[in-house]
Amino acid sequence: MKLFSKEQIYKGDKITEKKQNISSTDLMERAGIQIFNWLHKRMQGAQVPIHVFCGIGNNGGDGLVVSRHLITHGYNVNTYVVNCSDKRSKDFLVNYDRIKNVTKQWPTLLSCKEEFPVIGHDDIIVDAIFGIGLNRPADDWVKALFQYFRASKAFTLSVDVPSGLYTNKVPEDEDAVVWSSFTLSFQSPKLVFFLPETAKFAVQWDVLDIGIDRDYLFATETDAELIGKFEVLPLYKPRDKFSHKGHFGHSLIIGGSYGKIGAVTLASRAALSVGAGLISAYVPKCGYTILQSSFPEAMVLTDVDKNIITDIDVNIDPTVIGIGVGIGTDNLTITAFETFLKQNKLPLVIDADGINILARKKSLLELLPENTVLTPHPKELERLVGTWN
To answer: Which 8-state DSSP code applies to residue 308?
Structure first.
């Protein structure tokens, strides 16, 4: 599933409006109805108090649409406008008038802490205050409102993205973000749902299809994708009942050093689990007995050295090679790693100390063959490319 940037989402909205001959207000109505349908399907008319908090931009406009449809279907709804600016978006104002036409009164305007409503822990909060367009921290009283949501322990449903959560950076103040119980994201999830610093704000989420132009979605390339079951299933190939291990490739795992042979054992076992027909492991001599005892499915080749890898000399013809797990960063190992890269033409998966060696000697990056995959954890990536915001 593609994870679109804020700019790509805005562009998709504009293209959809043009190609489908609809207004931005029509698209907002479509999005709000989808949120309402999600709630209505689960609540079935239950008279739980619902508090809809709307900002004054397009996310707030979505919230007003949701509130209007909840009201017309007989739900117990309280609608609030979080008055955090003098500016209002055009589509917000359209839906502000529409809800007034239904309820015959304006939504409650909130401008300070003293105006916060009473919220019970069994109530429902709909968070439609800030969307993906947010580019500055919330005001102090709005931040206090977010903290009030959390303290209430009420179920909090966020529209598109938890309010206060940027799409392209980590917020400096966690209290300035809504900790959502559930987030309904339009058309695709947001990258920040999956980053370690920000995933906690949107632990549970779902995607609502609001009919963004399919051609645009298909043709647009994104910097990130979410790989799930539906992306993986097309790659699955049933195995012929007369096939054997020789039909499914030969994986070679190169790594290990004294005290770190377990890393090679785990990597070898994983390679077999994901489908490799044959598994070989190249380790220092100290790893021979360990591997043969703990994972007899692997064929084991050993270095001339007892404790570290000093010369990667294999007399087999693998399909793919994984290198680096537990290999260490001894100078002799680094030299052996460089010599190996100069000679190897096969696809590589490089992990752990293999990445640390690349970070120490970045000229080795030029030796990596096509289709090489690096699998760093954040600290290894930082050593390789430096820090980032």
So the answer is: S
The answer to whether 306 and 332 are in contact (CB under 8 A) is no
Closest to 356 measured CA to CA, from 268, 257, 269: 257
Q: Does residue 175 contact residue 147 with C-beta atoms inside 8 Å?
A: yes
Phi, psi dihedrals of residue 183, rounded to the nearest 5° = -120, 130
CB atoms within 10 A of CB 334: 18
Residue 157 in contact with residue 127, Cβ under 8 Å? yes
Q: What's the half-sphere exposure (Cβ side, CA atoms, 13 Å) at 252?
A: 20
Which residues, 6+ apart, have CB-to-CB distance to 309 below 8 Å? 254, 255, 256, 257, 282, 283, 284, 303, 327, 328, 332, 333, 336
Predicted confidence band of residue 169 (pLDDT cuts 50, 70, 90): confident
209 Cβ contact list (under 8 Å, min separation 6): 34, 187
> For residue 134, what are its two tokens?
């947010």
- What pairs with residue 202 in β-bridges? 180
Complete domains list, the chain, with CATH: 2-231 (3.40.50.10260), 247-385 (3.40.1190.20)
* Residue among 355, 362, 357 nearest 381 (CA): 355
Q: Which ranges constitute the DSSP H helices of 121-239?
A: 140-152, 214-219, 229-232
Condensed to tens digits (0 to 9), the pLDDT of residues 90-104 reads: 999 999 999 999 999
Give 239's pLDDT tier (boundaries 50, 70, 90). very high
Q: What's the half-sphere exposure (Cβ side, CA atoms, 13 Å) at 167?
A: 20
Q: Are 97 and 90 in contact (CB under 8 A)?
A: no
Looking at the predicted structure, is the pLDDT value of residue 222 above 70? yes
Helical pair 24-43 and 6-19, crossing angle rounded to 10 deg:
110
Residue type (1 letter), 286: C
Let me know how long the chain is.
389
Using alpha carbons, select from 328, 211, 319, 325 the residue that is nearest to residue 264: 325
pTM attached to this predicted model: 0.82
pLDDT at 361: 95
CA–CA distance, 381 with 212 (Å, rounded to integer): 35
Q: How many angstroms separate the CA atoms of 281 and 265, rounded?
A: 8
CA–CA dist 282, 279 (Å, integer): 10
Q: Which residue has the tokens 């392209």?
A: 168
